[in-house]
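Support request from a user on the community tier.

User writes: "When I paste my structure tokens into the form, the page sometimes reloads and wipes my input. The last time it worked, I copied everything first. Here is what I submitted, just in case something in the input itself triggers the reload:"
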């Protein structure tokens, strides 16, 4: 292989490597964003479950025979 061919192959490999590194960085950013969204949803679910439990306990209190 001639020196020019090796240089071209090396340049192409560097470009491919940079493209893969850019894609990896982009995917890491997306992963962080999805993790944040997941945490928010989990907190919302917990809040809704707590709210539901509070409503159930107040219904139990109101239906108690002493009230």
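"...and here is what came back when it finally went through:"
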């Amino acid at each position: 292989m001639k020196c020019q061919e090796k240089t071209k192959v090396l340049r192409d490999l560097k470009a491919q490597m940079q493209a893969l590194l850019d894609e990896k960085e982009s995917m890491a950013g997306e992963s962080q964003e999805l993790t944040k969204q997941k945490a928010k949803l989990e907190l919302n679910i917990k809040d809704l479950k707590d709210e539901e439990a509070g409503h159930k306990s107040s219904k139990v209190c109101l239906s108690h025979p002493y009230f």
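Agent notes: The reload is a front-end session timeout and is unrelated to the input. Residues 1-67 form one domain. Residues 57 and 63 are 10 Å apart (CA to CA). Escalated to web team.
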